[in-house]
């Protein structure tokens, strides 16, 4: 009897599977396409995060491009002897470590056959990236300059928020099953 209790899946209301009508199910993409779409999103997120994380760790002043208004300002106006610059570099490097961790999480979730883990990661990323967009837009509303390179960061996070948000709100149960599981 104890083994029966352990094998029953535990469902959380936030992770309840969406129900679709028969007409929606008929017009929906095949399950393999949905799985591959989520896997592609996780792989693209992982690759982008890995690059950004390594740049933040190795060349932290490069992140100034997104906040200072251009390459010249980012690379030409910093001095490693200034305490504020050293502090900023340390914070950017810490952020880079977190971004690299995210790259690993996204990569390994992509290969996971646990649909609850995949759904949980999608919900978490949808929340994190949506909150990030709101914070960046709030920052944009109060800054003195409007540079294209700093808007690219907002666009990247908005794309991630929209992509993960779509899967979180409209993704069927099949989208959260691993492609590898479907091949077994």
Global structural class: mainly alpha
Instruction: Tell the overall outline.
Output: globular
Task: Write down how many β-strands occur, each being a DSSP E stretch of 2 or more residues.
Answer: 0
Counting H and I runs of at least 4 residues, what is the number of helices?
9
**Percent helix among the residues?**
over 70%
Major beta sheet summary: none
The average pLDDT score comes to 77
Give your account of this protein's structure.
There is one protein chain. The protein has 184 residues and is mainly α. The protein has 9 helices and no strands. Helix 3 runs antiparallel to helix 6 and helix 7 packs antiparallel against helix 8 (148-170).
Summary?
With 184 residues, the chain is mainly alpha-helical. It is 73% helix and 0% strand.
Relevant terms:
9 helices; 73% helix; 184 residues; mainly alpha; disordered N terminus
Helix and strand layout, with pairings?
Elements lengths: L1 H6 L14 H6 L3 H28 L6 H4 L2 H6 L6 H28 L4 H28 L5 H23 L8 H5 L1
Helix pairs in contact: 3-6, 7-8
């Amino acid at each position: 009897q104890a083994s029966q209790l352990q094998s029953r899946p535990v469902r959380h209301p936030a992770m309840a599977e969406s129900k679709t009508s028969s007409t929606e199910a008929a017009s929906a993409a095949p399950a393999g396409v949905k799985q591959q779409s989520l896997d592609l999103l996780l792989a693209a997120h992982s690759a982008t995060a890995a690059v950004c994380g390594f740049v933040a760790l190795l060349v932290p002043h490069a992140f100034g491009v997104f906040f200072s208004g251009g390459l010249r300002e980012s690379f030409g106006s910093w001095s490693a002897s200034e305490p504020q610059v050293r502090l900023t570099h340390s914070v950017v490097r810490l952020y880079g470590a977190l971004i690299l961790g995210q790259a690993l999480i996204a990569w390994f979730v992509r290969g996971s056959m646990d649909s609850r883990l995949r759904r949980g990661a999608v919900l978490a990323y949808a929340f994190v990236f949506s909150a990030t967009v709101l914070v960046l837009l709030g920052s944009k509303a109060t800054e003195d300059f409007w540079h294209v390179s700093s808007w690219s960061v907002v666009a990247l996070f908005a794309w991630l928020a929209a992509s993960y948000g779509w899967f979180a709100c409209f993704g069927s149960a099949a989208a959260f099953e691993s492609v590898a599981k479907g091949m077994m």
